[in-house]
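How a chain folds remains the central question behind the approach discussed here. The record that follows shows the chain in one-letter code together with its fold in token form:
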Amino acid sequence: MTDLLFLPAQPRRGDTSLLLRAAVLAAGGTLSLMAVVAMARGALGLSPTLARAHDVAVWIHLGSVLPALPLGLYVLLARKGDARHRMLGRIWAGLMVVAALSALALRDLNHGQFSFIHIFIPITLIGLWRAIAAARAGRIATHRKVMVSLYLAGLIGAGSFAFMPGRVMGTWLFG
């Protein structure tokens, strides 16, 4: 834990700005907390249960998104470039691929059709490919920019829609 320096006074060379790190921490922390409270309320029976909450695709999607939130936050804010960063980054990327692909099966709110939120599927998959290609080519600034964008758009942006009325997480959190 000593290498995890949240919001240092001076960002490390090649790291993201203090303002961006604060925004990522605030957004990721808030959405993670909302997800934990929603899951607890759903598990304890303190909120209504939707029929689709028992769908396997929903559980696969939640099972990949929920750990990706805090893991991505850690990877973005912790030391970069070492073996741990690469290993955790690979795990996060794998979780994001599962989240994107499982979202293909989540179409019940739009009568079996894709909705506007499904735009995050190709954005996520293409973004991951771009970020990995950039890192392998040594273009670390591009890798960093794409990964921060993926976290903010693919998890925070898309995840915020999960708390809308009628959606599983929104129903569990707000009743």
